[in-house]
């Protein structure tokens, strides 16, 4: 992908925006919450430096075009993040990851934010396929993906070892044609 200039995407109740160094404390709050990190691919963060490293990697991603992280902003508050990564240029595919602060769960915010970014990914970035890899116990995440027309494509055994815990993976895929047919 080419470099990403800062941009915003608007949805009815929220805005997706680029992240900057000033977001480090809010990002730390998201990723240090053990409940929100229950099914994440790494342990909850313990140090603010991890948020600074995350922002540095985010800014490097904008520069290189290797990955794209957007902040989910609700009324001026950074409520979550959505990440497009693992871009494969030849096959025009990437993976998607998402994190929403616990106080915002269950109100359809992530569905709204992801719909805006997915639409951008297919229409503007011209991607062909988006993939998601989730812990099978993460019911909210599976429901969210299905509501966005992702298809469950497979189950992989013992794919992750997180903090010593061995976890399976459910794999979901969304094609550009699936998305455009539903919109
Ligand atoms: C997964 C996550 C993004 C869902 O965001 P959200 O904004 O709460 O999602 P929605 O409000 O659109 O809810 C999606 C569905 O899950 C349900 N849901 C929400 N929170 C739930 C929970 N804690 N347990 C079970 N179901 C839940 C909702 O009722 C909804 O189902 P419905 O469409 O049948 O009504 C959010 O819970 C989160 O960030 N969790 C922590 C990080 C994480 O696990 N990320 C995914 C890693 S793969």
UniProtKB/TrEMBL annotation:
Transmembrane segments: none annotated. PROSITE patterns: GNAT. Pfam families: Acetyltransf_3 (PF13302). Residues 14-173 form the N-acetyltransferase domain. InterPro entries: Acyl_CoA_acyltransferase, GNAT_dom, N-acetyltransferase. Keywords: Acyltransferase, Transferase. This is GNAT family N-acetyltransferase. It comes from Pseudoduganella guangdongensis. The lineage of its organism: Bacteria, Pseudomonadati, Pseudomonadota, Betaproteobacteria, Burkholderiales.
């Amino acid at each position: 992908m080419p470099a990403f200039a800062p941009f915003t995407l608007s949805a009815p109740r929220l805005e997706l925006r680029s992240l900057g160094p000033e977001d480090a404390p809010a990002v730390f709050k998201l990723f240090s919450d053990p409940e929100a990190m229950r099914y994440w691919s790494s342990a909850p963060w313990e140090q603010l430096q991890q948020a600074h490293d995350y922002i540095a990697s985010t800014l490097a991603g904008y520069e290189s075009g290797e990955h794209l992280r957007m902040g989910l902003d609700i009324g001026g508050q950074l409520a979550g993040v959505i990440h497009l990564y693992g871009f494969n240029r030849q096959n025009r595919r990437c993976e998607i990851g998402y994190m929403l602060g616990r106080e915002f769960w269950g109100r359809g915010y992530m569905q709204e934010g992801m719909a805006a970014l997915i639409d951008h990914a297919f229409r503007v970035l011209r991607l062909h396929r988006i993939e998601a890899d989730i812990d099978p116990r993460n019911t909210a995440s599976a429901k969210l993906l299905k509501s966005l027309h992702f298809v469950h494509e497979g189950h992989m055994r013992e794919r992750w070892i997180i903090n010593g815990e061995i976890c399976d993976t459910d794999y979901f895929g969304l094609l550009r044609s699936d998305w455009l047919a539903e919109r």
